Every structure is written in structure tokens, then in C-alpha cells.
# Entry
Amino acid sequence: MNEQELKDLYLNNYKRKTFQWELWSFCNQKCVFCYLGADNKDTREERQMKSLTDFEKSIDNLDYTLYNNISIIGGEFFQGEFHTPEIKEKFLSIMKKIGQLYEDKKIGSCWLTCTLTRKEQDGLYDLLDYFKKNKIFIPNKKYTASGLWLCTSYDTKGRFHTQEQKDNWNYHMLNIHKYYKFVKVNTTIILTGHFINEYLNNKIHLGKFSKKYNTTLFFKQPGLGTQFEVRKSDFDFINDLEKSLIKYKEKWLINKRKANKFYKFNFFPAQEEFKKLLIKIKAEEPEFYNRLFNIRYRADEVHRNRNEAQNDRTDIRFKNAFNETNETNNVLNNCKHLFSYACYADNNNCCMCDKNNIDELC
# Structure
């Protein structure tokens, strides 16, 4: 392949897109703020096998001139969700097939989500041993986005329910880097009020954290989980747009405050504290500033498999330099950014606008 073809292959969201598949709604972490919340049930065996089979058919027929990344969420893997040896073997065989797609230069990367909070990671090390032995997913030295990525999460409050879970996460993060250096890791951090307080008081340093765990970092604004979700379908946007939008915004603010009270910590931050965070990162660790809720790192096509009658619900994200929209959630704030960026506990102002304003001023 020539240099331009390699660039097209290995750069994420450069010319080609990310194809993401949620195999099932399973994560025994049960974080109160997670979108899986109310739907986080034990997926039946037949549903698991159907989703695996559908996923395999999709990647067998995917147009790889359009897609160069395959992302798999489950909600999060290796937590004991493989109910039978057949399901585990089917999952591992598909992952090996994806590895071959990488070797054949059909895709440039694969993302795989995992919490790493359990001592036993059912299937993870089996998979990594196979890739290591067969020298599959060796990253391209020039293009750092290439290869196999484990996508995990770290939060200062609400993620780790016990010290043992945090210790397990720490162990696996260091162990993976020690024995599987070809594997790359990205850690997502939610910009909660608690995290912001820790960062402003110098209790966490992004550069040191990234270096210690050999991980890139991605940051998300807090969002309303399943328990406090404000659904567009509950309002009559078609016949009464103005009134519906006012009620939608009121409900959004009320539910953010309810969530903070229910979670028993400041999940949603105050705007002024959030702006202090932005200024501090911009001034002291600017290399992380562009990783703040950057839409280019989100999947373009998402297939969701929930524990409900509907199977394989597809969301298509339309992304540009300004915004991202999809067919199911396109309520916009006054600034025309998605309303999901209205993440403050004290108002419905837009954190994306604050980021852009500080970017211009500093």
C-alpha cells in the first residue's frame, strides 16, 4: 500500500468510519449513572447467540472502503457474561476473524470495551494470548491509532464500588502493558463535579495518570442515565415546538438536580467549576484539551441490542466539525449544539460552547 492508502486505513474518522456493535446489555458493574441502568439484565443465551451471529454476518458483508474500525461493546466484556462454552467460543472466533481483517488491511483498528474491575477476566487473556502468539494486531509505528484497543473507564466517584474493584483495575492495567505491549488502552473519564474538584485540588494529574497506566484519555460530559432520561418522544415537538422545547429544558434541569441528589455526590458540576477545569487543563496540560468530548472519536454507525422485543436497533451519527446528530436524539440547545452538552447542575448552558470560547481566549 502507498502512503495515502496507509493513511486512509489507519487514521480514525479521517476518510473512513467506525462501525460499532453492542452485542448485549450486560455489565455487572451497575454504575447508577450508566445508560445501561434499567436495561442491565442478564441476557438470555439464545439472544446472545443471535446477536453474535448477526454481528458476524454484518462484518462479513461490511463495505471496508467505507469503514476502517470495528468497535465492540457488550455493554462491557469479560465479566462472566459468557453463559455457555459455545457462546464464549463464538465470541472468541469472531474476534479472531476481526484480527484477520486487520492483518489483511481491511481495517486499521478494533476497539473492545472492558471494565477490568473483576479479578477473573473470563476470555480476555485467552484472546490476548492468541493474538500475541500469532503476532496479530501489531500496531503500525507511524499511525498511533492502529491496532487493538481496550477501552476502559476510570472515575473518581461512582465507578469503583469497592477498593477491591479499584485494585483489580489497577492490576489488569499494569499487567496488560507488561505482558501484551502490542495492546493499546484508552480510558474514558466522566467530567463529574467530584472529578473536577479532585483535579482542581491537584489530587489527580492527567499526564502522570496517562504515563502510569500507558493509556490515552478521553473525557465525556456527564449525561442523564436511564433513570433520569428526558425523552424527546414525551413532548409534542411537531405541533407545539416552542412550548415543548421550554418544557424539555425545564425537565432536563430538574432531572440533573434530582440525579445529583439520588447519586449522593455532584455528578453534574456547576458551570463555574467546569470552566475552571477547562482553563486549568488548557494552561497546564494542553495535550489533553482536544480529548474533551471530541465527537470525532465517537462511532458513526451503532447497532444496539437491548433486552427488549426490538433487536439490532441502528443509530447513524452524522458528524461535522460543529456537531453530531442522529435520528433518535437531535434536540438542540439555543447555540445549536446537542442538548446533551447542557451538563451543568445550575443551568442549561452548553459546555461545548464554554470549551470553544476558552479555546479562543487562551
Summary: The beta strands are 17-26, 67-77, 109-114, 147-153, 184-190, 215-220, 301-304, 313-316, 318-319, 324-325. The longest helix spans residues 241-263.
